[in-house]
Amino acid sequence: MILQQPERPVVPPPQQLPRPSTTFVNRLQTLAALDTCTATDGAGALCTIEGAPGVGKTALVVHWAHQRRDRFPDGILYVNLRGHEDATSPASPDEVLDGFLDALGLLDPAVSRTLEAKTSLYRSALHSKKMLVVLDDAVSAEQVRPLLPGVSQTPVLITSRTRLTGLHTREGAVSVDIAPLPAGEAVELLRRTIGESAVDAEIAAARELAELCSCLPLPLRIAADRVAGHTYLTITDLVADLRNERDRLDLLDSDDPATAVRTVFSVSYRSLPHAEARMFRLLGLHPGSRFSLTTAAVLTGLRPVQLRKSLDVLCKANLVERLQADRYRLHDLIRVYAAECAEADEPAPDRQRAQRDVLTWYLSSAANADRVLTPFRRRVPVDVSGGLEFASADAALDWCVQEQPGLAAAVRLASALAEHDLAWRLAAVLWGFYYQRKPWADWIGTHRTALSSATCLEDPFATATIAGGLAVAERELRRYEEAESLFTRALDIWTSLGDTYGEAWVCNGFSQMCRELGRGEEATVLARRSLEAWTRLGDRYGQGMALNSLSGILSQSGDLDAALTASNQAVAAFSGVADAYSKAWALNNLANVRRARGELVEAVNIYERVLVERRTIGDHYGRGFTLRSLGETLLELGRVDDATAVLGSALEYFEQLDDPTAADVRRLLESKKTSAEGR
């Protein structure tokens, strides 16, 4: 008698994908990258999808797989490998293979198989299949290797918070890195959760909410639910509470431990080796989200080799992002969590030492940059030892631009820590950079903070220095009431102190404000007072500033001969001290006077010369003003097409800088367009 084996029941193709997210948005480039990765001819692709906690790796892969399921007629296998869950241990390959073999109808409970035997059976089953395998939340290459098909038509997608270097090196896996959402897509996610009309009615608050959540989908969904569920009536109310970093992670908590932001971050933190966990904590004490290798060394005290090694571990864990060779970023929410870890796990003296060290380093480095950027200004007393040194103005400017967010945050942190002396001095040495580049929000924000610190110190020198610097920004933004109050405050202090330099400096800026307000006599008195003070001090640079201001005042009053004399003297003064930045302003003013005298061709020649010099020194703000003046002069010469093009370029500069002059140029262009249409 021949015994026949019972036939195996027919098993339908497995479809194990979880439900897709209803709030998934765009990610078009990343979805296209998955298409490219899996578009292989007869060979199963191996693709790792890696990114920070909460960045939306699972949602992305599940969405893609649902959209492409017709490509896999033999089914889709999915498993959560639990690599980074708080309450459970990672899934073992044995456990996962039992589930996969069962889904394929190949698990026989009566037969005991080794891991190797299960892997062989699994690979044989998938050999001729057109399937997809999704291995979600892997913890290591060792965990997933037994789950990889052999030679087959089955792609494998693996998500992980950590970089699975072994799979890239040995198995040739292709990596798709997932970044936080672009700002526009983050707002779109809020629209899908809260509602389009509600978000659009508070669009500015919605954008800030996205920023406060680091544009990470997980915290964005939790925050959106706070509004959709009426915990908060408006986005604005939620944003007001989220601005406080100490409360932010509490507000992004969840009843589900798997989705609570703090819990999600904590699993990654607790898996770090001791040295890297300490570095992560200390990086949370950095005042900003971006930092350099040098800054990290100041915070941690580590030598370069150990520093790079530890940063590499943090980058592979996707807790830190490498931006360039020696520049890194800690996304704001992760930085807030790191700061919590520092407060909980780092001794208070070590925290205080690290913060003071990095603030002092920023102050010393910024002071050195200021000495190169504005070599003719009076120096604020600062110990510059230990700070970076700069060989040129370009190098100093590049550093200030790169470190701009961290420098502004350092002023705020110093004030918050009651390091008021550090706060006002750092803002003061940043003034030259701010004046040249016009980052209005940082300029005004740091100086208001510094003014409060100076007031706390009851230091008149500090108060007058910061008030005068802030007054210039307020004047340039045409907030004249605030500017006049600050100029007056600073001038009163300098006069009471008998500080001729401070008096001369404030009188010069004050005179420009009075000219803009049409207060010509007052402007003239202040400019001449400034010039006399600089002359007593024998300060050639200061004389150039006062003469430049005086030429504009005299030109506006109609005394064009005297204005021309003052302009030529200002150009000579700045040429004598070799200050290209100030000389360009003086030449621009000289062209203005020539134009007022009706010497239009000569004015155009000077403006074009100034444009070349300003391009060379990278003075975007100055280029905008020169282009505007040149465009207006070309209009007076009847060169309308040339003028329109030049004014269009000027408008672009002012719009990029968010400068109020943009409105003036826009009105001029619109008026010329209307005139042309009316002819």
Q: Keywords, please?
A:
three-stranded antiparallel beta sheet; 5 domains; five-stranded parallel beta sheet; Rossmann fold; 33 helices; mainly alpha; 679 residues; Arc Repressor Mutant, subunit A
List the helices and strands and how they pair.
Blueprint: H1 28-38, E1 46-51, H2 57-67, E2 76-80, H3 93-103, H4 115-126, E3 132-136, H5 141-144, E4 156-160, H6 165-170, E5 174-178, H7 183-194, H8 196-201, H9 203-212, H10 217-228, H11 235-242, H12 245-251, H13 261-270, H14 274-283, E6 290-292, H15 293-300, H16 304-316, E7 321-324, E8 327-329, H17 332-345, H18 348-373, H19 393-416, H20 420-429, H21 431-437, H22 440-457, H23 460-476, H24 480-497, H25 500-516, H26 520-537, H27 540-557, H28 560-576, H29 580-596, H30 600-617, H31 620-636, H32 640-657, H33 661-678
Parallel strand pairs: 1-4, 1-5, 2-3, 3-4
Antiparallel strand pairs: 6-8, 7-8
